[in-house]
Amino acid sequence: MNISRLVKQAQRGNKDALLQLIMAQQDAYYRLAYSYMGNEHDAMDAMEDMIVKLYEKLDQLNNRESFYSWSKTILVNRCKAMLRSRERFLPFGDDEHEPTLAALTDANPYRNTESEMDMEELLSHLNARQREAIELRYVHDLPYQTIAEMTDSPLGTIKSRISQGIQKLKAVIGGDRYENDRGEAAGAQAEHEYHSGPART
After folding, report:
1. Mean pLDDT of the region 2-29
2. 116 — pLDDT class (breaks 50, 70, 90)
3. What span, in angstroms and rounded, lies between the C-alpha atoms of 93 and 80?
4. Residue 25 and which of 4, 31, 69, 124 are 20 to 30 A apart at CA?
């Protein structure tokens, strides 16, 4: 699929081109929305809001190849706006309020295996910002820079949250069970330490 060509067509008013772009990653959009909204109905509402915003703002996108990171940032912003308007806490956005394990597993079709239940239990040991960064990085496979833009946080802060979160998870499970994480955590920490100023964790 030629993303740049489809975006160009969509910017010229071709709705089918925009629909093709959205449908190509509809599952990724849904999982991302569900992570914030916690149920299928609200996740679908957030996706509908995102599509409206894409129609309104598509001509503002200069780098056509970044369509997916840009559109997912819009989706996250719509989720957070919907939650604020309903006076509900953000599943990822408030350090004092963590979502319950049941809310994250019972109805979510993407979290229905024993291993995923175990991961939910592990993630419950993180603060909300660390959890958000780690889920966006490893569950949704988003680049550091995209996560920084989505959360309106400095790149070094995102790397620090991920590094500290990984270290906390390793401490919970005994330290050496996930050796493959060691290089990622060390790399993120090293890059963070390169940046000046304290990180917001």
Report:
1. 93
2. low
3. 9
4. 124
